[in-house]
Amino acid sequence: MTRRFTVIQGGLSLSAADEVSTGRQDAAVAADDWTVDLQRAGTVDDAAVAAWRALMTRNAVADPLQDPDYLLTLARHRPAGGRIAFALAWNRDARGAQALRGVLPLVMPHPVWGRARARPWQPHGLPNAASVIDGERAEAVTDAVRGRLRSLRRPLILDGAEPAGASSGARVPTLVASSRPVVRARTIPADSVVGVRPQDYQSPAEIERIREPARIRDAVETFLALDARSGPRPIVADPSEAALVRVVSRLFARRQQMSVEFARRSGEVVAGTLRLGAGPHSVAWRHAAQG
What we know:
By secondary structure, this protein is of the alpha+beta class. Helices cover 24% and strands 23% of the residues.
């Protein structure tokens, strides 16, 4: 079925990057009651974040690197030139209420030098795009987002998705949520604060794990100081990266989804790890150790 889209313009500019919504009023609405909001990271409100997390729960997505606290913060602290828009696809549930069916973070083209193509955003550390979509609605969600991009004053093509006219049973593997654990190149053992150790590494005398939200801020600063002393490219030397670490740590600590682990020898911190998430789904996000 061919879907027809209507756009409420609301004073949008000619730039595709500037046509990203600052609210719900200029969303595109499909004939079959699909609504797609196209928003910058700073305009995704608390209600949408709550719906996003409910979508993750329904699809068994537990990776903290796909949590809105992480992705929205990462999008705001990208280097200059990186334009990220979040496509939020809604339709009505059985009770007639709007339900979030998909979140597709997109890399938008440059307004002048871009090739009129948007593509799914794949942040470093994720094996696939950062999208989360209700599995049984993958094709409908992707079609709705594709139509929203076509309806912009400067129409865009969605790369990395099934072409129009694909069979109804087709799926979009790079955009469908997966419940499988994320596999990363350097796996840090769950019970090890120092991660991948050199052969001559001596076990520290003391391990400290900090989980209390009130202590996380100071613990993160201690970690950054350790990283500055030991790392070849200190986090604090990059203001954007340092801000990302501080903000993500604060947001995750607020939900008790953050911990900091230190290894001490003779009272001195010799290694540290920042962990996002809780329980078996936590991931070692940043690590530093003295040589």
